[in-house]
Amino acid sequence: MALLMEALPDRVLEWEAVLGRESHLCRGAHLVPGSLAQAEGHLVLLAEQLDKSALTRSLAVLEQAGVTAELERMTRVAQRELLSLRLSHWSPSLKAGLQRVAQGWDLACVPELPVCDRPGLVLMDMDSTAIQIECIDEIARLAGVGEEVAAITRAAMEGALPFSESLRRRVKALAGADAAIIEEVIGMMPLMPGLTELVAGLKQMGWKVAIASGGFTPFACHLQQQLGLDAVFANTLEIRDGRLTGEVLGAIVDAEAKANILVNLAHEHNIPISQTVAVGDGANDLLMLAQAGLGVALHAKPLVQEKAPVCLNRLSLEGVLGLLQAR
C-alpha cells in the first residue's frame, strides 16, 4: 500500500516503526513497497539529527533528473543518523544538484559504495584531517616564523603552489629551531572529532587503517602508537645537535606518493581498490581521493570541495564510518 510522505514522522529514525523492514520505492510524495531490480548509484544523507526535509528536498532533485530511488537503510552510526537510498541511475551532475539543496546535512552521491562486511582499507591524510592542526605551522609558531610558514601552507593546500616546493620552503624557514619543539607540539596535538570512533569502528569491521601525510614522522608515529594504526607514511626532518637543519631527508610524501601508497597497501593486504577509502582536505590529497574506491574530502579547501567525489562539511570523521555502514 502506498504511503504519503507527509504521514511519516519528521525524524528519519522513527520511520521503521511505520514502514517496517520492507523496502520502499520513492515516487513523488509517495512511498511504494518494492525494490529496484538493479541500482546504478547510491545516495547517503547524514546529520546529527536527520529529518524528513533532507529526503523530500533530495527527491525533488532526483525526480527532475528522472532517477528512481529506493529506501535502503535508516540507522544511527557513531551517534549520527543516516538514510541510504539505491538509485536507478547516477551521473556526476546529481552531486551538484543535491548539494545545492542540502541544508543541515551532509551527503554522498556515488555510483558505488564499499561494503563493510568485506576486507577494506581507509587511508587518511594527517594534518587538518586526522588531527585538527597543521603541525609544521605549530612548529613554526613556536620557532618565531609562524606567519611566514602559515602563508606557504595555505598556498599549498589551495593548490597555488606545488606541495614539494612548499614543504622545502617551509622546512627551510625552520633551520636552527630547537628540535624539542616537536615534542611540545605532540603534547598539544588535538585529534579530529570522530577519529577514535572511526578507527574503533574500522577495527571492529576488520579493516586496515593507515596515514599518508605530507607532515612529519614523529607526529604520525605518535598517532600510530596512540590508536593502533596499521601503517603510517610521512616525511623525515633532519636534526643535528638537537636542532632542525632546515632539510627533509629522503623522498617527499607528495600527492603522487599518497596515491601510490594507497595502491601498494591495497595490494599488500589483497584488498580490491573498490574497497578502499581515502580521506583528506588539501590539494595534495586529490590524486589519492581519485584513486580510491571512495574519496572523501573533510572540511576541505574550495578546490578540493569542487573535485572530490564526496564532501563532509557538517559531520567529521564519524561521517566516514557512517558511509561505510550505509549499505
From TrEMBL:
Q: Which domain of life is it from?
A: Bacteria
Q: Provide the active-site residues from the annotation.
A: D125 (nucleophile), D127 (proton donor)
Which EC number(s) are documented for this chain?
3.1.3.3
The keyword Metal-binding belongs to this UniProt entry's keyword annotation: yes
Q: Which cofactor does it need?
A: Mg(2+)
- UniProt KW keywords: Amino-acid biosynthesis, Hydrolase, Magnesium, Metal-binding, Serine biosynthesis
Q: Does the keyword Hydrolase apply?
A: yes
Q: Which Gene3D superfamilies match?
A: 3.30.70.2020, HAD superfamily/HAD-like, Phosphoserine phosphatase, domain 2
**Which principal EC class is assigned to this enzyme?**
hydrolase
User: Which interval of the chain is the signal sequence?
Assistant: none
Put simply, this protein is called Phosphoserine phosphatase
At the highest ranks, the source species' classification is: Bacteria, Pseudomonadati, Pseudomonadota, Gammaproteobacteria, Aeromonadales
Gene from which the chain derives: serB
